[in-house]
Write a sequence for this structure.
């Protein structure tokens, strides 16, 4: 007899150990954070971890999110603390593209993003959104729009992380 | 009143992904494949899958090739010290690696000739123990996780 089980875990790409050491001796011992009986409960758990007061579109938000993940995995190896200069040099999050130093020039994801913003009932983003202006437009838009944002809207924006740091993996549980 | 309720624990069997990086195989990730309420069931399943994976890996070519060269050197495959490794080989009645010049050790390499010789001496009843020397070279693991909600 079996029943589905929904596992919440950090995606492999977010486990620094793989990138730095690639050695089983230093891999994350238990990267599955929680298990739930329903996908809804698993999704709610992930959403509850977003730092909703922070912008997902600048490095401050990203570092806060990293902090959330570090807190959930105490005692593991972490990357060395970056200097403030290094943090400033980091590229902001680009919707649909991830944290790229040089964002892709494609404008399609930007169009999708601006449409999604409107569908969420949020103030419009300055358009056209381009590779040249995305690093200033989105953080500024967040500062302007966030005082009126509901929690659900903030969650929806955080879900633009691509890929989201957490994923839900469904397995069958046998007894 | 003291609560006696405890969270239910399940045992997840995860499969490792080893990927070739043009020099050796690296551990690139893991995928949960099945969960069990009973730890013994999880271990039985994990052991069966591990044996299948080893057999498949051995038949696909590298068995006769030099494992350490496929996995980036001995330390990436085993937590054993050189002395412990040699002691375990001796206990199994298997050939020892050739002595290394002063300053070198088996951490760097294990020769193809020795590898050929040792595999020729590994009878089916010794295979499990031989694989056990390479405790970092695994295809499956079990992770215990609490179930919420």
């Amino acid at each position: 007899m079996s029943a589905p089980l929904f596992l919440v875990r950090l995606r492999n790409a977010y486990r620094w150990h793989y990138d730095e050491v690639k050695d089983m001796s230093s891999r994350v011992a238990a990267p599955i954070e929680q298990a739930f009986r329903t996908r809804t409960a698993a999704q709610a758990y992930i959403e509850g971890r977003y730092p909703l007061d922070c912008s997902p579109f600048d490095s401050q938000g990203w570092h806060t999110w990293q902090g959330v993940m570090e807190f959930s995995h105490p005692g593991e190896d972490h990357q060395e603390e970056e200097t403030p200069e290094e943090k400033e040099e980091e590229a902001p999050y680009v919707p649909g593209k991830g944290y790229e130093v040089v964002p892709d020039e494609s404008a399609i994801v930007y169009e999708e993003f601006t449409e999604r913003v409107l569908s969420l009932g949020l103030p419009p983003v300055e358009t056209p959104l381009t590779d040249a202006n995305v690093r200033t437009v989105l953080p500024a838009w967040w500062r302007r729009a966030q005082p009126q944002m509901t929690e659900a809207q903030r969650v929806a924006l955080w879900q633009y992380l691509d890929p989201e740091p957490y994923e839900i993996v469904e397995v069958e549980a046998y007894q | 009143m003291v609560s006696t309720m405890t969270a239910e624990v399940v045992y997840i069997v995860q499969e490792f992904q080893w990927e070739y990086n043009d020099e050796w195989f690296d551990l690139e990730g893991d995928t949960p494949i099945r969960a069990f309420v009973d730890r013994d069931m999880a271990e039985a399943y994990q052991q069966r899958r591990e044996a299948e994976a080893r057999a498949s890996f051995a038949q696909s070519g590298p068995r006769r090739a030099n494992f350490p060269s496929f996995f980036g050197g001995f330390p990436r495959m085993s937590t054993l010290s050189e002395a412990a490794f040699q002691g375990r080989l001796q206990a199994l009645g298997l050939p020892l690696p050739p002595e290394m010049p002063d300053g070198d050790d088996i951490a760097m390499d294990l020769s193809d000739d020795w590898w050929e010789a040792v595999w020729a001496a590994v009878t089916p009843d010794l295979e499990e123990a031989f694989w056990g020397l390479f405790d970092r070279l695994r295809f499956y693991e079990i992770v215990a996780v609490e179930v919420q909600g």
User: Anything to note?
Assistant: The helical segments of chain A are 16-20, 39-47, 59-72, 84-89, 108-119, 134-145, 151-158. DSSP finds seven helices and three strands in chain A. Confidence is low (pLDDT under 50) at residues 16-23, 71-107 of chain A.
